[in-house]
Amino acid sequence: MLDLLIRGAVVVDPLNHIHSKKDIAVIDGKISDIREEITLPARKVIEADGKVVIPGIIDMHTHMRTVLGHKHAQRMIALAGVCTTLDMAGPLEDILTSIPESGAGVNIAILEAAREGMTISSSRPSVQEQSDFIDRTLEQGGIGIKLLGGHFPMDLDISKSFIDLANDKKAWVAWHVGSTAHGSNIEGLREAVSSAAGKFLHIAHVNSYCRGQISNETAEAVEAIQLLKNNPNLFSESYLSPLNGTRIIVKDNVPLSKVTSTCLKKLGYSDDYAGMKKAIFEGAAGVLVDNGTVGELLKGQEGVDYWEAHETKCTGSFAVNPAVSRFLLATAKRDDGSFVVDSFSTDGGCYPRNVIVENGMLLVKFGALTLSEYAVKASLNGARALGLKNKGHLSVGADADITILDLQNERAYATIVEGNVIMLNGLLLGSGTTIICDERGSRTLSKRGIKHVVKAPVCLKTIENRFIP
């Protein structure tokens, strides 16, 4: 008997060149058959006529923390059709210890942020300290590190050293670009591209550097596209929401995050306590709060009251991502037909902007992407980059990570991870978490009783040998 049978959906699997109506059978968490009609009995049947099935969505940039977040991030991505995600800052230990209360059945790979006073001793750690930090992260269950240049910039030589060390150790390294010399903008992107010097680097949310801070949004997006084309060693993602995410903590009348200062000034507010308060009151910024079920953004006087009651120790969002740059980055292709920006992302998780389905389906309806191309950016490219050979496609024997889409209403209808239906028609059904780790973290996670899978090491050849839809 089958564990799960999905009947009557249009199945879109770019790796196997499938785009037709089929049934999918699942046994023991794996896809056991896929054909026009399957008549075997099943313990659970999903009637999916009129729906679209794609390989499980992989969001390549979220924040799953409870610290300065809340406990609902996993539920929020499961509701959004996401099976697997790359958390881009940790804290690693916070996410691991929150599994019993927060688990919703999803897969999470984690990057630990290099943050002065938290994970490193200063903004200029020694090479030995940098090396120890990377090793410790891998051994504890993370897959690599993230540089928070946009929020907490370091000198360029330190960021470059981190990139070199991570590559030597075959660890993932991502950069929210920015340094003490250049900010989180197109100038910072140029600097990061040069610093990678042909080595692997994950450029976080490319759209964030195309907000018209230096030139106009279109010119910046076009330049970003060319920089990525010229440097195939760079993995990148961009998100489709107008909302960003940042710490809105103000200390000594100065925003703690450089990104917050930039957003305030861009929107015409002073970058101080009064300016932040006014931005929240007028609705230009929202304060992230836990409403007991999911995270939401509070604005107006209610948002101000919450922010002040918490002594500004909050995170929040500004609507600062222009539509034109988001569109260009989402659709741009290289000369060989592969995508310039490898994957969709949201920078969501705990932030309410998990819109790979909602906004991605609009791109499909507009005609900017085919469903197959959408699946490449929403799933396959992320799986390939992360070294998850059994994800991102619907081959027989592959992990039964599946997203069922309601194309008409631009929403996720079902989220399935290893054959387990963790969300169906808006109802959450999952629990627990599977951590995606480096082989160096498997022993530690096993000792802690944390379910995990081991990814393949970072492979520059795989990054550069992009899938062509």
TrEMBL record:
GO terms for molecular function: hydrolase activity, acting on carbon-nitrogen (but not peptide) bonds, in cyclic amides. Residues 52-417 form the Amidohydrolase-related domain. It comes from the Bacteria. This is Amidohydrolase family protein. Keywords: Hydrolase. Signal peptide: none annotated. InterPro entries: Amidohydro-rel, Metal-dep_hydrolase_composite, Metal_Hydrolase, Metallo-dep_Hydrolases_sf. Its cofactor is Zn(2+). Pfam families: Amidohydro_1 (PF01979). GO terms for cellular component: cytosol. Gene3D superfamilies: Metal-dependent hydrolases, Urease, subunit C, domain 1.
